[in-house]
Write a structure and sequence with these properties.
It is a single chain. The protein has one domain. It has 109 residues and is mainly alpha-helical.
């Protein structure tokens, strides 16, 4: 099976890649899409169909907390946990421009 960029991965590895992908989506309130176009400003009126603040909080904590679970999921997906964490912190910070200030990622949880 291929995941992205025609990289061959087995089905189990692909499942863990999707776990990380969903956590990124949750951590950014759904502002990060895997495909273009560039995301639009987050609209709180559509919150019922989007990630909740609690989902975002939990996902952000998962990425920044460096837990054993986080490290295992990254390894099972074939990724370096430290690289994933830094990349996602950068993405969460960049997504602040699309979110109301009260939902901004401030480097912690």
């Amino acid at each position: 099976m291929t995941f992205t960029n025609n990289i061959e991965v087995d089905e189990c590895q692909q499942v863990w890649m999707y776990v990380i992908k969903q956590a990124i989506y949750d951590a950014t309130f759904g502002t990060v899409k895997t495909q273009k176009p560039k995301p639009k400003k987050w609209n709180p009126s559509k919150a019922t169909s989007m990630t909740t603040a609690l989902d975002a909080h939990n996902a952000r904590h998962w990425f920044t907390g460096n837990s054993k679970d986080f490290r295992l999921v990254c390894e099972w997906a074939g990724f370096d946990p430290d690289h994933v964490r830094q990349m996602v912190i950068n993405v969460m910070t960049e997504c602040n421009q699309y979110l109301p200030e009260k939902y901004h990622f401030k480097g912690g949880v």
